[in-house]
Amino acid sequence: MALGLFRVCLVVVTAIINHPLLFPRENATVPESEEEIIRKMQAHQEKMQLEQLRLEEEVARLAAEREALEQVADEGQQQNETRTAWDLWSTLCMILFLVIEVWRQDHQDGPSADCLGGEEDELPGLEGTPLRSLTLPNKETLQHFYERCIRGATADAARTRELVEGFVDDLLEALRSLCSRDADLEVEDFIGVDSMYENWQVDRPLLCDLFVPFVPPEPYHFRPELCCSRRSVPLDRQGYGQVRVVRADEDVPGCVCGKSTLGEDMLCLLHGSHSAARPGRGLEAQLCAGDPPYLDTAQVMKWFQTALTRAWHRIAHKYEFDLAFGQLDSPGSLKIKFRSGKFMPFNLIPVIQCDDSDLYFVAHLPREPCGETPASSTDWLLSFAVYERHFLRMTSKALPDGACHLSCLQIASFLLCKQSRLTGPSGLGNYHVKTALLHLLLSRRPADWQAGQLDARLRELLRFLEKSLLEKKLPHFFIGNRKVPEGMGLPEAVRRAEPLNLFRPFVLQRSLYRKTVDSFYEMLKNAPVLIREYSLHIPSDQASPPHKAVVL
Q1: What's the gap between Cα 388 and its chain centre?
Q2: 31 pLDDT exceeds 80?
Q3: In the predicted model, what is the mean pLDDT of residues 49-74?
């Protein structure tokens, strides 16, 4: 009974404790926890949305950068393709240009077909020029003019050469006796060049041009350097070269004593023990400039003029004439002045031989009117005068007897000389006329130079000169001319050089070019009248007025 009663009480107490109205706050925590959870979930959701937006922006930025890189790569590839195509096109154009230039050089280096044609041929683009309407005298008149006016005026050329050569031999011998073997240049035998030794001199008074070769004293030697043999050289320096002065003990191949330190107990058998002790003044100090030393043209000419004056004073008592300098700006220009008032000019030209060839470096040469000016005092002019004499002599052997090539040159030179005295000197000189003749000799058959074709060849020579003047192009006969016979013995560097245009100054000097062209056409206009007049009457005195002389 008691146990049952206890159980009933326990049930009642449990029901009262669990009644919701008795403890209302304990059941209210659940809804509050749910709202907090919901707020946290909403905040997390917002944070996730923000992160998603950030990630989407990052992905978009990366995608934009990738697209930009791809676009740049595409543009670079297109530029490379465009550049490759342009480079290919430029290369093709350059190849085409070179092919055209080679073809032009091969076909136009020599006289053109228009210039090499008969008398009836006409140069293209020259309609109405004086040459087209030029009427030269007939063959008989030309031959009569040559016999009376030119051959007769130069009949005493051999006697003039003999007198000048004998005096120059004596003068150079006296010069050798005065020179120092340690510091002065050694003088060799002279060489006759130009018109007096090629038998086409026409101007009066007769003028001898003599090369005087020099060699260095021991222990020096000359090392010539051709400008035309260098890879890159200005066009105005192709006709020049330099002469380097080298000691023999500095130019021994294979010796390394100058590049290494020898012990005190070691001796160089090539140079010896006294090679380091060099004099303070030698050839380098007196006649050279620059480092390394190159032979200076101004110093050489000054030394040469002083040496000639001393040599003449030593032998002057043996002669009954005076010796004077003909031109102050040309130290080698001399005059023999006789007591009768007559004079005999000649030129002594210091030269340096280029190795073992017939090419010479010239310190000073009576320049053609349109000649280039040396850029430096160490630049020496290249002279092919000995080669020109050899070529004329070799060609004459293959020509018919009495060939008219020298007659053409003499008549053209005579006309040019007379025109120069009428209107003054122009840019056209005898050397240009001679160069034109050499080109024609190389291109024409020997049979074309028979004596009966004097009028045709003279007209052809004048046409060649006119065409060259209008084109402002007259190629040097030797430099860059591979048509010259190999038997001439030209240096290979000269044969393979770029062609030298003797009329290049006309491109730069328009006033000189205009004067030269006008003077040339006036010469052509006056030629028929001049030839006929001189055929009938020869002036008794054809000598030009003498230059002011300076007595030694």
Answers
A1: 20
A2: no
A3: 85
Q: Do 295 and 380 touch, CB atoms closer than 8 A?
A: yes
Q: Show the tokens assigned to 281.
A: 């003044």
DSSP-derived letter for residue 203 is S
Q: How many CA atoms lie within 13 A of 16 on its CB side?
A: 6
Angle at 37 between CA 33 and CA 43, to 5 degrees: 145
Q: Are 298 and 377 in contact (CB under 8 A)?
A: yes
Q: How many CB atoms lie within 10 A of CB 458?
A: 21
Angle at 167 between CA 301 and CA 149, to 5 degrees: 95
Q: Compute the average pLDDT of residues 200-217.
A: 91
Spell out the domains of the chain, with CATH numbers in brackets.
Answer: 139-247+284-536 (3.30.460.90)
| Buried/exposed code over 223-239 (b: 16+ C-beta within 10 A; e: otherwise) | ebbbbbbeeeeeebbbb
Cβ distance 350 to 304 under 8 Å? yes
Measured CA to CA, the distance from residue 366 to residue 395 in angstroms comes to 26
Q: Is the pTM of this model over 0.85?
A: no
The total of other beta-carbon atoms located within 10 Å of residue 442's CB is: 17
Is residue 478 left, alpha or beta, with left meaning phi > 0 and alpha meaning psi from -120 to 50? Answer: alpha
* Spatial CA neighbour of 22 closest among 31, 13, 30: 13
CB 451 within 8 A of CB 403: yes
**CA angle, residues 106, 111, 117, in degrees to nearest 5:** 125
Residue 248 has what DSSP assignment? G
Nearest to 521 by CA among 456, 446, 469, 460: 469
157 contact partners, CB below 8 Å, separation of at least 6: 196, 199, 201, 206
Least confident of 118-132, 180-194, 261-275, 421-435: 118-132
DSSP 241-268: EEEEEEEGGG--TT--TTTSPPPTT---
* Strand duo 191-193 + 288-289: pairing: unpaired
Does position 368 have pLDDT exceeding 70, yes or no? Answer: no
Alpha-carbon distances, residue 299 vs 215, 249, 286, 302, 376 (angstroms): 15, 25, 7, 5, 12
Phi and psi for 526 in degrees, rounded to 5? -85, -10
3-state secondary structure 483-542: CCCHHHCCCHHHHCCCCCECCHHHHHCHHHHHHHHHHHHHHHHHHHHHHHHHHHCCCCCC
Give the SS3 label for residue 298: helix
Rg, Å, the chain Cα set = 47
- Give the pLDDT confidence of 150-173 residue by residue, as tens digits: 876 667 888 999 999 999 999 999
What sign does the dihedral 101-103-104-105 (CA atoms) show? Answer: positive
